[in-house]
Amino acid sequence: MNSWYTIRAQSTGAEVVIYDEIGAYGVSAKGFLAELGALPDATPLTLRLNSPGGSVFDAVAIYNAIKRHTGTVTVWIDGIAASAASYIAMAGDEIVMPENAFLMIHDPAGMVMGTAFDMRAMAERWTRSRAACCRATPPSRGVRRRKSPP
Q: Is 69 one of the annotated active-site residues of the chain?
């Protein structure tokens, strides 16, 4: 089975490679977390990203698991860390991004079909998602926040 990530042991830690969409068409965050949890405590991680994004909910679970990991985490954005992948990138203790790599952070977006109640409920979920994502991208990361449009 193809998966959207790999975890490989290295002489001084482990390398985590996410080079595809987050969630949906690959192994679930549950599988990723199980493998990450199998690493010895305090194992230094190198996280390599090249992802267009995907499920924000899978990304939140992966972000939280990486933040709980007791070893140092160095994130390399090899190509692009867009959308949900940008959220995972913020879990690193250090983020390395070559000049020709891309980081794309945006407000939550999606579609909803239903009543006015359904649309307001979805808007509230997007607002909560945005607030959670903003907490993960502090100004010290060099990411500027903008106020929401009126």
A: no
Catalytic residue selected from 51, 55, 83, 86: 83
- Pick the catalytic residue: 106, 129, 140, 148? 106
User: Would you give per-residue pLDDT tens digits along the chain (150 residues)?
Assistant: 456 566 676 778 898 888 888 987 765 788 788 888 888 889 999 999 999 998 888 998 999 999 999 999 999 999 999 998 999 999 999 999 998 999 998 877 778 899 999 999 988 888 887 777 666 665 555 544 445 444
Name all domains of the chain by residue range, CATH numbers in brackets. Answer: 5-109 (3.90.226.10)
Residue 124 φ then ψ, to 5°: -65, -40
- For 1, 6, 17, 134, the CA distances from 108, given in Å and listed in that order, are 30, 27, 24, 11
Phi, psi of 16 (to 5 degrees): -110, 125
The pTM assigned to this predicted structure is 0.79
83 counts as catalytic: yes
Residue 15: strand, helix, or coil: strand
